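Entry type: protein chain
Record version: 2
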Amino acid sequence: MYEKLHLGCGVKHLPGYFHVDALDYPHVDKIGPVDDLSFIEDGQVGHIYACHLLEHFGRKEHVDVLREWRRVLRPGGVLRLAVPDYQACAELYVAGKLPNGLETIRGLMMGGQRDVYDYHKVIFDKPTLTQTLLDVGFSSVRDWDWQTTDHARMDDYSQAYLPHMDKENGRLVSLNLEGVA
């Protein structure tokens, strides 16, 4: 029943996934907090996809959220994360390669702020997120390429590039990492 979870799915529907979101959309299977998966027993899930969701939890909260997601994964299960890549954004900013300066990355760094859930509370770079995943019990961490996934045709923030939507010449500003349970 819970082979694949799509956490914080919002308006995005992935066929074959069980969708969990705090907001009520027609395709959401479970309306509720994504940091409390108590409706799922330990080690029951094979795959979790959470795209630009983890940054919505606080500096201390996100570690407990990762522990909860790790808890429901079976051995060898995969947590596929996408979060804003602070290093990529900072490098573009310092190099003066943002067409509207700071405003170009403000939403990526701070959230869209369209509703009570749409605020970013923590930033990540690859070394920090990798270490956090290892610290909460993942056996390994690896990069993943959005182009090779079962959801590659669904445009979401895992495919965020600057300049906006320039997937051929732009810089990927989403940090895409998988933790293996």
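Comment: The radius of gyration is 16 Å.
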